């Protein structure tokens, strides 16, 4: 089994330390409480094992627990997949990729650096504190399966809790004109293996709250994940797509933004993540793309700018307009000096931009955050990836 193989092939035992974090501790505690209370309530008070229905119910509860833990631990220990340290692509595509100083290598398409994991993650969706790991290329299916199974198992457990309290309290509740009395010592017609005491009632009620809360919260996360999976996106790429559309609308260009990884069919997108073998399609570096796009459509961004006015990097420039003077960003990040004729690639046309200075293609590209007035640049209306080069400045 994949889960057992991941345990055997641990490169370092420090992977086990992922369990000693508030996220996994809380998640596993909720799973343990709901599963244990559901089994106890079912066997002792609601649906004994000496009946056919009780036996089937017990097997289903065990099945939910095993499947939930299987996908949870796989999502945690299989991991998202990481870009190899020091990875470098072929020379002609280096200009379209970002360089990660921490990993000392380039980021492949769809990869992002996670500060928590301290690695560049393949097809990074997000860093999940509940598994104390990133959700990415290799564990996206396991993580999403866990998000589906947890609400289903908790819904089953919640039904057990409700029926247990109903059947045990039905003959013990008496209603008055203005009062409701519960006699826990009253003798019932059918005696369970153990009396349903006040502590048992409190524990069942507490477990019911956990089960209902988990069903709602995790169920919402499942629908969010399925929404992006059926479009072959990640949560980060959904944000990038929105920015690209906003830029196109702002500059009123006639270009059509096409998300490069949407294969045009929800079923085809679904099969990119979920496979019978459990291993997603692709190597985490090269991806199938839309016929009108290429591998680096999102990497190079949707906007290329040409500098039309020199800018010396002043904090409050007097010669760049009133708005540039009074609306200077309140941040300690530097302003980026510009020279007329420079070419800049950016994911945003205003505010934060990431500039790369690269005078020699063989040199390492370092990223620096900075600002410059919008009026200093104009948008270039041609495809960056189809050009010969990106000039001596890049912004990402």
From TrEMBL:
Its EC number is 2.3.1.225. It is a multi-pass membrane protein. It is found in: Membrane. GO terms for molecular function: protein-cysteine S-palmitoyltransferase activity. Its main location: membrane. Residues 97-240 form the Palmitoyltransferase DHHC domain. It catalyses: L-cysteinyl-[protein] + hexadecanoyl-CoA = S-hexadecanoyl-L-cysteinyl-[protein] + CoA. Belongs to the DHHC palmitoyltransferase family. This is Palmitoyltransferase.
